[in-house]
Structure formats: C-alpha cells, structure tokens
Amino acid sequence: MAFAFKSQNSLDPLRMIVVGEVVGIEKASYFEADKLSAELDVDTRPDTVTLKVASPKGLRVGQTLYLLEKNQDHKTYRDANIVGMVTVRSVFQTTFFGWQVRGDGYLRLIEDRPVTAARLLDATKYEEAVMAKKQGDHFVAKGKLDEAIRLYKRAISLDPNYPDTHFALGKVHWNDGEGYVSAAYEFSQAWKNRERFSNSQEQLLFYLEYMRFLIYQFKTEGKENTKNLELLPQIAKEARTLNPKNYEAWLYSFESAYLQFVRANILATGVESRKSKEEWSEKAEEALLKAAYLRKSDFYLHKLACEFYNLKWKETRNTPKEKEYRDKLVEHGRLLRIYYTGETGIADEILNAIRLAEKQSGVF
C-alpha cells in the first residue's frame, strides 16, 4: 500500500498498490516531425516505458499506472509523490525477467531517477467480471440468451467500465431484435471505455459492429439522429489505425462518408456547406477505392458505389466531369451484375440510372 500525493502542496493522498518499477524508457524508433514538434523544437512523441512487475494481477490493457518517487525522508514507499503516468499497452511474461508491462507516457524528465509504479486501489472486481463475461459467452453459444444476459449484467455490476462485456451484451440485445435501445446504450458504454478492451482484435470487432449499428440506426431514424452519423468518421479512423488492411473498416468508412455527403448535399446552401460536401465526396471516393482494392467481389460495395456515382453524375451534368462519373457508374453497374447475390433488392432508380449511363456511353 502507498499513499501518493499529486503535488508537494497536496494534503489529499491517493491510496495505491505498488506493482513494480520502471526498468526502461525509450522513444519509438520511427520519427516524423509533426507541426507541434516543429513549433516547440522538441520531440513530442510519448515515451515507451517498460515496467518489471511482481504479478499481473490487477493489471489490464488501457489501465493507467502512476509513477511514484519516494520521499527520501521516509524508509518505505508508504508516502510518495506522483511524477508521471503510464497507459498500459501490454502485459506479458518473459523467460528471464518474469512479468513485464509495456506502456506509453511522457517521462523524459525522470528517466534517470529510480521510480516505482503503482495502481489505484480498485473498488471493482475485474477478474470476477472477466469470469462472469466468459460464462455469458458460453450461454450465448448454447443459445440460452436469458442466462447470458443475466451473467453479462453481473459482470457489469462487478466492473462497470469493462468494455468487452458492454459489447457482448449490446450484440445480444441487437441480434435479439427487441433490445434496439438497450443495444445503443451498451455500445455507447463500450465506446466510452474502448481503451480498456482486453485485446486489439476484440476492439476492432467492436468498432466494426458499432459502425454497422450506427449506420443502421441512422437509416432507420434519419434526420432524428444525426449525432451518431457524426461519430462514425472517428470510429472508422480508429478501426483503420488498428488494421489498415481490414476490408470492413474501409467499407464502413466509405458508407459513412457517403451518408455524410448525401446529408451535406441536402444542406449545401452556403460556401461552407458546399465545401463540406466536396470534402465528404473526396473521402468517400478514397475509401471506396481502398475497399475495392481489398475485396472486389462484394455486391454491397458496388451497390453503394452505384448510388454514390449516380449522385455525382447528376450534379456534374454538362460539365467536364460528367463523362468521368458516368463511366464509373457503368463500371460499378457491371460489377454489381456480376456479384449480385439476390439477397437484397436494387432500387429501380439505380437500375434505370445504370441503363441510361450504359446507353449514353455506348455499352449497349
């Protein structure tokens, strides 16, 4: 146990558990000066920190650890000052050095001083929450959703900020078809605590599912829920950062940018609105090209592409750009026919637009 103070003048200590000590601080090997670094003439990247810990118990990805410097007047770490913070990125065991933690923080000013790492005395029961969540997963696989929901809710009561459980419960509510509002709440809680996901794969799966849900929600509620549409680009960006080669991340990036383009097209009355519309158009086309490169055989991608290029063709009639967008509509219309699965319908407006574009381009 340690009582840590945020500053020399603070009389309100935080109760903490000492977990280990700092054994290494370094910058990432790759460096590209950003605007802030150039202005300050310093390297503003966070430091990569390695900690040696006695046990992984109570440690998790996304958790904040506090770095303590012992007051030299005391013989133990019971009283110390907080001199830095580290966000945990991985917890792992090595053959020679035992358990270690890797994290990010800004620590260059203290790298040559002996520093101890500690975590807050946690009132939650993380390990029990993980176990309850796994039991819930088991009952989902068995099709016993009522029991799964009960266990997921128990896991949330043990650790309300554990995003894996909110994600799992949100999926059950949405797939059940009757918990639409509940699913929205659980997904929002998982997003709020996304830094605490147990692993990056689960985090990516959540991002993809949340984007799919928000797109569905916007199409269902339309103008009544534009706030969620505005959240989509941020989720898409974080998904692409986790895995730049994930097809669905680029597909939903395209769809979200396309929906933003459609909305901006309706509101395009002033200079700023028209500028916003063009920006979303460029982002949509960029994401479309990347998605098509990763997976060309998806009917849904070409259906969206036809809708997008039909709008672009309409707004560029009698301009030098008209032929470019007409030909792109023809090309995606061709691919749409090749990969059409018959699972969903295609609007007559799009089919007629494809036929007209083909006729004008001389395909038929």
UniProtKB/TrEMBL annotation:
PROSITE patterns in the cross-refs: TPR (PS50005)
Gene3D superfamilies linked: Tetratricopeptide repeat domain (1.25.40.10)
Coiled coil: none
Pfam families: TPR_11 (PF13414)
Secreted recorded as keyword: no
UniProt xrefs under InterPro entries: TPR-like_helical_dom_sf, TPR_rpt
Keyword Transferase attributed: no
TPR repeat locations: 129-162
Keyword annotations of the record: TPR repeat
Annotated protein name in UniProt: Tetratricopeptide repeat protein
Organism for this UniProt entry: Leptospira kobayashii
